[in-house]
């Protein structure tokens, strides 16, 4: 079901949907929903035909699931399968959409800006280019907890000034939670400095240092592919990662998607913008509950819902319909 087909649904005034990025994948995702809704496997079949390999098999077996080039199309497809189930069940059309990193592509498909087939091919290529940009073991990412954003940036600058290589703030996920990315030795230096400064540091199990300058070569190649893909203006506003704004036109949208590979994800600002726009309910349209847990930290967000199981989907559907005044 496309967004056009859902035009008979009343648009929400208090609800936004967010779409997760890499790291939310898990073996067996959406299996229970697939048993109840044929649209789940149909969505995976549609996406699999576009990329030329079986995304459902990867999602259920786990074989290749943590390889970036496969992870990205699998996660995007899972998010769109959940989106279609939501619409099939009569869920409201959200006021805003946003996606974390890879999730931005899921949001754009849901908004009618990209076709599912084009999007899975793009993110498959995106994953390959990201993987090829930095030799295995030379890049790393880590979550720094309990320090102010400015302090983390300062630690990155100090570490980068010493010798070759750099490290940068990659994801501003929430107050007191910043992910850094860059050369492995530099990331380790920031982790050590963060602990000395009273914070916590957790190495992330990733093979690609995303959203830092090491990804600029990948971005240059990706921009060429992106220029060949048909993109329309989103029919639901999509808040983009690089500037926490909705694109003014398609050219700006393409530019932001290219820059997203090497610029920081402004998720803290994205959630703040949603709150400032009167959003009170957030639904996480993808596997897991990472983004809904982040949203719960905001004072004006009354409820954040994961949608990745039938029971979670039904809870969110009923609560949001009541909150939006569609049912008593």
TrEMBL record:
Q: What keywords sit in the KW lines?
A: Acyltransferase, Transferase
Give the EC number: 2.3.1.39
Q: Which InterPro entries match?
A: Ac_transferase_dom_sf, Acyl_transferase_dom, Acyl_Trfase/lysoPLipase, Mal-CoA-ACP_Trans/PKS_FabD, Malonyl_CoA-ACP_transAc, Malonyl_CoA-ACP_transAc_FabD, Malonyl_transacylase_ACP-bd
Q: Which residues form the active site?
A: 101, 211
- Transmembrane stretches in the record are none
Q: Does the keyword Secreted apply?
A: no
Gene Ontology MF annotations: [acyl-carrier-protein] S-malonyltransferase activity
Q: Which GO terms describe its biological process?
A: fatty acid biosynthetic process
Reaction catalyzed: holo-[ACP] + malonyl-CoA = malonyl-[ACP] + CoA
According to the UniProt record, what class of enzyme is this? transferase
Cellular component GO terms held in the UniProt record? cytosol
Q: Which intervals hold domain Malonyl-CoA:ACP transacylase (MAT)?
A: 18-313
Q: Which family, according to UniProt?
A: Belongs to the fabD family.
The UniProt entry, under PANTHER family, shows: MALONYL-COA-ACYL CARRIER PROTEIN TRANSACYLASE, MITOCHONDRIAL
Q: What is this protein called?
A: Malonyl CoA-acyl carrier protein transacylase
User: What organism does this protein naturally occur in?
Assistant: Acinetobacter lanii
Gene, per the UniProt record: fabD
């Amino acid at each position: 079901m496309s967004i056009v087909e859902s035009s008979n649904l009343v648009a929400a005034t208090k609800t936004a949907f967010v779409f997760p990025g890499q790291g939310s994948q898990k073996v067996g995702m959406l299996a229970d929903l697939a048993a109840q809704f044929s649209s789940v496997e149909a969505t995976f079949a549609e996406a699999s035909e576009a990329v030329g390999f079986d995304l459902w098999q990867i999602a259920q077996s786990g074989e290749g699931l943590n390889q970036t080039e496969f992870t990205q199309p699998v996660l995007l497809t899972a998010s769109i399968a959940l989106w279609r189930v939501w619409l099939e069940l009569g869920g409201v059309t959200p006021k805003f959409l946003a996606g974390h990193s890879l999730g931005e592509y899921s949001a754009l498909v849901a908004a009618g800006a990209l076709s599912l087939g084009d999007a899975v091919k793009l993110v498959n290529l995106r994953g390959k280019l990201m993987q090829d940009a930095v030799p295995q073991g030379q890049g790393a990412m880590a979550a720094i907890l309990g320090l102010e954003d400015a302090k983390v940036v300062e630690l990155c600058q100090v570490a980068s000034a010493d010798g070759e290589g750099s490290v940068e703030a990659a994801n501003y996920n929430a107050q007191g939670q910043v992910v850094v990315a860059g050369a492995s030795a530099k990331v380790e230096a920031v982790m050590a400095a963060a602990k000395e400064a009273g914070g916590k540091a957790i190495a992330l199990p990733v093979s690609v240092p995303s959203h830092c300058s090491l990804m600029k070569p990948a971005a240059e190649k990706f921009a060429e592919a992106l220029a060949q893909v048909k993109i329309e203006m989103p029919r639901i506003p999509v808040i983009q990662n690089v500037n926490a704004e909705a694109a003014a036109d398609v050219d700006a949208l393409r530019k932001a998607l290219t820059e997203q590979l090497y610029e920081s994800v402004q998720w803290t600002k994205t959630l703040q913008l949603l709150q400032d726009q009167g959003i009170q309910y957030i639904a996480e349209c993808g596997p897991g509950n990472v983004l809904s847990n982040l949203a719960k930290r905001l004072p004006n967000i009354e409820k954040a819902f994961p949608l990745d199981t039938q029971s979670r989907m039904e809870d969110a559907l009923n609560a949001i319909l009541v909150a939006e005044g569609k049912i008593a």
